[in-house]
Amino acid sequence: DQEDLYVYRTRPDDPLHYSYRGGWEAMEVAEEVFAVRGAPDQRLPLKFTRHGPVLHEEDGRVFALRTVWSDPGAAPYMASLAVMRAKDHDAWRDALTDWGTPSVNHLYADTAGSIAWQTVGTTPVRPNWNGLLPMPGDGRYEWAGKLTLDQLPHVRDPGCGFIATANEMNIPEGWDHAAHPIGFEWIDRSRADRLKQVLSGEELHSVPAACALQNDVLSLSSRRLLNVLSGARLGPAAAPALNLLAGWDCRATAESAEAMLVEFWITRHLKPALFAAAGAQSPALLWPGSIQAMLEVLENPGSPDETAARDRLLDETLAAAWTGACASFGADPAAWHWKTLHRLPLNHRLARLDGADRAWSIPEMLIGGNGSTVNYANYRVSDFQAITGPSVRLVMDVGAWDNSVFVNLPGQSGLPASPHYADLAPLWEYGDYCTLLYSDDAVEAAAVTRIRLRPVQEPRAVSC
To answer: Cis link prior to 102 (omega < 30° from 0)?
Structure first.
């Protein structure tokens, strides 16, 4: 929602000129020089159109990117400096008017009990296209300003008493998407559904309860999948898998055998079979695939013949997953654990270099969760390695600030020799927290080390 790819024709006799509004416009060329040890300097010419940098060239065409991120004043999070100084809701919202990138869900709470939600991020107005495909850069498709805060989704003090977002499709019901398109791609709504499920069942909220919710690994997508299985007609080959899944609480804990089987089934067997059934010529182009779309297809097969075809697909893939899991992990499911597959390595970027200190890397973690749990732990489809998750967990007790808690992965120092380089990693792994002190007295009482930065005194010139 914050960028567009433009395509231009280049002039046959001079590829540094491109078509624009019936004429030819010259590209800007900047040469970058890279020093390489033991070799001559390397030079790379960078080409720019009026819309942005050239990313690709072929057959008399160039492709260039226009993005909000490169606009003056759109540096990521710069507006947060003003946001943090806001004293009330109106000042907070005024500060958000200058928020350029990234596009985010911004939440507000104050000591008077008011809460608010505002989507922010410069969103271009596209008068005659939607930004989903590359467009000719010849001047017919130009941005016409940006949406205002009032034209972006927002709410203050909702009747339910809470606000929860998890990157799901949260555009309000009745939103005029044709007039004010906000976005087209969203992740699984299961995490947001789980947040709302828990919060709507609590009359009062507490810091411990919020911490528990952040570490929640109940998978609503797995629950929906098991509901589909319960109404399907499956054969005897799938019976051992059904027996294992019977009574599972759908919590994707690190120790869970059921979670391992379900994720192995979905990734190695069920999704590929669905892609093939949908006529995909190259299933790899559909990876990783939307779990939400998959569930909706399985839950709503349509006609009796389509229901029978769905049941055959479930039967065949679940039986194949059971056979494959037994072959790969042993015939006794009591020895299966989701953490066997679902690992989080934290390798230092320099660890691959010869002579680098391997201690800079953090020991691999064996974790639970998945892409549909509040404790987000989406994984790489090739080997189930966790690739995304919460680098920081934070719970604020609004008004009683010294009760707030946090945990940062892996620690609070970027220096490998520091005792705080990785000391928070075990807390993060097991769902524990540290206090996040705010008041001067509390900070002074807990202080262990002080770092004082003083300017260097330049020697003064002495005249004789």
So the answer is: yes
